[in-house]
Amino acid sequence: MTIANRKFFLKWLPFNFCDRFCERCEEFRDECKVYQNELRFRFQCQLEGKDPYDTKVVFEYVGQMMAQTIAMLYQMMEKEGIKITKEDEERYKREEEMEEEKVKSHPLYRKCWALSADFRRFLENFWEFFEERPWILIYLQNEIEEICFYCHLIAVKSIRALYSQIEEQKDRIKSPRPDSLVSGSLGYYSLITCQRSLESILNVMKDVEKSWVPKINQLLKSIEETKKEFKKTFPKVENYRDKIIFHGRFLN
């Protein structure tokens, strides 16, 4: 990451410039506000005797953060003399429904969701295979960890990128770091990380259990098709590698 991009990253909360793999992030953790907020959350959970990984506890925390954000926005609107009418709300709801329909009908959306389902089935079946041959996990632990972490980001980030692309086109937003390309880049490089992890698994399985070879090749084929759709939808996506914080071991 360049010095200019580092300054930009540290100036703003990195909610969408980063893959949030905090366990691997030694360079930015001490200065990252998002990470510091999470540390405070975990510390507060310890004081209150709560499990910071419990879904209910996490959603309560997220709800509190959203309530604080909404309250802050209302204060800003009141200060600027902005009022939202019922007509505004109805118009926004119609626009939101139209955008949702547009995103869900997009080829990239469909390919990413289908790929997520493929990855889920692959991991479920592969885990059963591992249980019978635990020694293989010694050789493939890093690859499995990469896939488990990054496969869900492919769909999540592509969806955000598609929504952002609609907003940027509608409002004619021009930015040196448009969210559509930042989010798209995170999804794209998550895809590449999963691809390279799968290729490593494939090389091992060729010698261990050949029956897995066609299954992995089919998944790699789906990844290639999704990569093409990413680059078709976001032609500059590969130019944003130095504008995100990414920790995939098998990226380079």
Would you spell out the secondary-structure blueprint of this structure?
Blueprint: H1 3-11, H2 33-48, H3 55-80, H4 86-104, H5 107-132, H6 137-171, H7 179-208, H8 213-233
Q: What is the number of strand segments? A: 0
Biggest sheet overview: none
Distance between the termini: 13 Å
Strand content: under 5%
Rounded average pLDDT: 88
Structure description:
With 252 residues, this protein is an all-alpha fold. The protein has a domain at 86-252. It has eight helices and no strands. It has helices at 3-11, 33-48, 55-80, 86-104, 107-132, 137-171, 179-208, 213-233. Helix 6 packs antiparallel against helix 7. The longest helix is centred in the middle third of the chain and has 35 residues, at 137-171. It is globular. The mean pLDDT is 88.
Quick recap:
The protein is 72% helix and 0% strand. It is mainly alpha-helical.
What labels would you give this structure?
252 residues, mainly alpha, 8 helices
